[in-house]
Automatic annotation (TrEMBL):
UniProt protein name: Tail specific protease domain-containing protein
InterPro entries in the cross-refs: ClpP/crotonase-like_dom_sf, S41A_metabolite_peptidase, Tail-specific_protease
GO molecular function: serine-type peptidase activity
Organism for this UniProt entry: Lentinus brumalis
UniProt-listed GO biological process terms: proteolysis
Keyword field contains Cell wall biogenesis/degradation: no
Length: 682
């Protein structure tokens, strides 16, 4: 018994020693490999993620390759020279000489590859153009930093506007971040420890000791995506969207950041029903994102997330396996597009105009108490129909112009609007909150069925466009109509396009052979001839009469309506006289009901496929392959304006008719906001 007890004790000691040795080795590995500490973890501190990201030096060849790909892809971006100095009213907002800055970045030294990425990313962001964005899966939203305190902008009965923690903040955070709530509970000062819920609704008097609007506008300088300052400001705050799988909650850019650059925030607050001024410091917590591949160490981190993948670069559509639309690969930009994306075959068959951002579309659920119930016939996916209590105001909540099949969207929109009319609706609210675009022809269809057949909706229910016609683009177009694209898969094939008189181009027509020369901001440029509509006849017959008088239609949102959403909103407002309402904006800043118009967006991988398929990859102006897991978005077609029909609509003014003030009882409650719009605007 004594001997057995001694052996058992000895075994326990040896086990303890082995465990301690293993722990010491693990600590040593983490110390020597900063990525090991966050590998296979769901939650980390931003500082630990940053330590991993900054541990990699710049690879000179890789850097040169990135800049060359971006530079040569920008030859297809229609807006480069316009964005050097945008016309009024956006001259102060858009003045980025992209080509000069890329030359600067090329010669500049950086402490790490991550620092290089930040500079390159923010340089593109300064365009304030949600189509022309550089994304690297290695860093962007690989870990997303969160706070449990999304903010809202409220107006009291005296008209005084203040920043608050959202009334629903704790409900959202506890449902979405349940496993991490204890970290924030324990970070509160002793008098508030464990009382995170009590911060919901609190007035925010200062952020890091300064006026909250200083933080709002500091973020607006780097957030990009929209030309208008007001729209970039609204991105700081929480909001909602009719998502493909249900109503979603956007926590806003204060409470959600795509890069691990901020460790904590100090908030000076006045809680609801309290006169006491209190200060709390909350840490950001970085959660491993949906776009990433797990890793255990630095080598796996780089290999799994930072190297080019099979879809990063273009392909030859006629290599034997992709000669039909049904076999095309998924676009690498899709995870960052701000609309649910269709299958590759749908994407090529029905053209898209969609905004890109460094954060994937949100999947946080709108709390049940805020969600509209009992949607009407026609409701499905991103399309939701409701009839308000006055029995005369119908609502179409449209979260995007994609998210379902093209045909389903056309059919559901028509069914829902016709049903509203049958139920007695004579006025319509179209809620496009956080609508990042989608199918171009769905935007045309919605315009057409609302207003009926007229010279602004038939045959052209959208806006005429142009594309850039540089030397390489001209060669692609010539090759596309000279036998290189027998199945009509290429954007540059003439069979997809119509002349300015809305008659379709014939097969084999070299439509870029005679480019239109322009001088923009002192630089020579070349564009295609003016292109007419590409959507009609539609797959379904539209009604012979208007479903609603456009003067009784309101286009409502938080200003963050982009791409195809902008095409719809602009034609409804400027051509048809529909009213436009933005909610939650600052009184002192002009609100824009939409932005980032474009005409058709695409990306490097798509353009590269056009180049590869036409056999032009070795042409000197063709971009090489990315060796990094990167995406470069562009505006491929640019829409002409309504008020100034020979100039791009992109930088023309889109002022909202009404800035609807939000109060604590209606903020982020779609139904309550709709009722207020019906009462105040219609």
């Amino acid at each position: 018994m004594v001997a057995g007890g001694f052996l058992s004790l000895l075994s326990t000691v040896f086990s303890a020693v082995r465990f301690a040795h293993a722990e010491t080795n693990a600590l040593a590995v983490r110390a020597s490999d900063p990525c090991a500490g966050i590998g296979n973890q769901t939650w980390s501190s931003p500082a630990d993620v940053r330590a991993c990201f900054t541990s990699f030096p710049v690879d000179a060849e890789e850097k040169a390759r990135i800049i060359e790909v971006v530079n040569k892809t920008l030859a297809f971006h229609t807006s480069v020279n316009y964005e050097k100095l945008a016309p009024a009213p956006f001259t102060l907002d858009v003045h980025e000489d992209l080509l000069a800055d890329l030359a600067r970045i090329s010669s500049q030294k950086y402490a790490s590859d991550f620092d290089l990425h930040i500079d390159l990313s923010r340089t593109l962001k300064r365009l304030n153009d949600g189509h022309c964005v550089y994304i690297n899966y290695c860093y962007d939203s690989l870990f997303t930093s969160y706070l449990p305190t999304p903010l809202v902008h409220l107006t009291d009965k005296f008209g005084i506007q203040t920043v608050h923690i959202a009334p629903e903040a704790f409900s959202v955070a506890s449902a979405e971040f349940g496993d991490e709530i204890k970290t924030w509970q324990n970070a509160l000062p002793d008098s508030l420890k464990g009382q995170l819920a009590s911060l919901s609704g609190a007035k925010v008097l200062a952020i890091n000791g300064l006026d909250p609007w200083l933080a709002v506008d500091a973020n607006a300088k780097i957030s990009g995506s929209f030309q208008g300052l007001a729209t970039r400001e609204l991105g700081f705050f929480s909001s909602y969207n009719a998502g493909a799988s249900g109503w979603t909650y956007n926590v806003g850019q204060f409470a959600q950041q795509s890069l691990p650059l901020t460790d904590s925030v100090k908030l000076t607050v006045q809680r609801v029903n309290s006169t006491k001024i209190e200060t709390v410091t909350l840490p950001y917590r970085a959660r491993f994102g949906t776009t990433g591949v797990k890793f255990a160490n630095s080598a796996e981190f780089r290999q799994n997330n930072c190297k080019a993948v099979s879809s990063t670069n273009g392909i030859n559509y006629y290599d034997g396996s992709t000669t039909k639309r049904s076999t095309l690969p998924v676009n690498p930009a899709n995870k960052f597009r701000q609309a649910p994306m269709p299958s590759p075959s749908e994407e090529r068959k029905h053209l898209l105009n969609v905004m890109l951002d460094l954060q994937p579309q949100t999947d946080v659920t709108l709390p049940p108490g805020l969600t509209p119930s009992d949607p009407l016939p026609g409701s499905s996916s991103v399309v939701q129909f409701h009839l308000l209590s006055d029995k005369k105001t119908g609502v179409l909540a449209l979260g995007s112009f994609s998210g379902d099949t093209y045909e389903n969207l056309l059919e559901n929109l028509l069914t829902g609007l016709q049903n509203l009319k049958k139920q007695g609706a004579t006025q319509l609210i179209v809620d496009v909150s956080n609508n990042g675009g989608g199918y171009i022809c769905v935007a045309h269809w919605l315009h057409r069925i609302i207003v009926g057949p007229k010279d602004t909706s038939d045959p052209q229910a959208g806006l005429d466009t142009e594309t850039r016609a540089g030397p390489l683009a001209q060669l692609i177009a010539k090759a596309a109509v000279s036998g290189k694209d027998p199945n009509g898969l290429l954007l540059y094939n003439s069979i997809s396009w119509s002349f300015a008189n809305n008659t379709y181009m014939p097969a084999g027509y070299d439509w870029l052979a005679e480019p239109v020369k322009k001088t923009i901001n002192g630089r020579q440029d070349a564009f295609s001839q003016r292109l007419g509509q590409e959507c009609q006849p539609f797959e379904f017959d539209p009604p012979a009469e208007a479903l609603f008088d456009p003067k009784n239609v309101v286009v409502l949102g938080n200003g963050r309506c982009a791409s195809s959403c902008s095409l719809f909103s602009i034609t409804m407002a400027k051509e048809e006289g529909a009213k436009t309402v933005v909610y939650g904006g600052r009184n002192s800043v002009s609100q824009q009901y939409c932005g980032t118009v474009g005409g058709q967006s695409t990306d490097y991988s798509t353009i590269d496929s056009e180049i590869v398929t036409t056999g032009l990859k070795d042409y000197p102006l063709a971009p090489p392959d990315f060796t990094t897991n990167s995406v470069q978005g562009i505006t491929w077609r640019l829409a002409f304006g309504v008020d100034k029909p020979n100039e791009p609509e992109e930088w023309q003014n889109h002022p909202a008719d009404v800035n609807l003030h939000l109060t604590a009882d209606i903020v982020n409650k779609p139904l309550a906001i709709w009722e207020q719009v019906a009462k105040q605007v219609l």
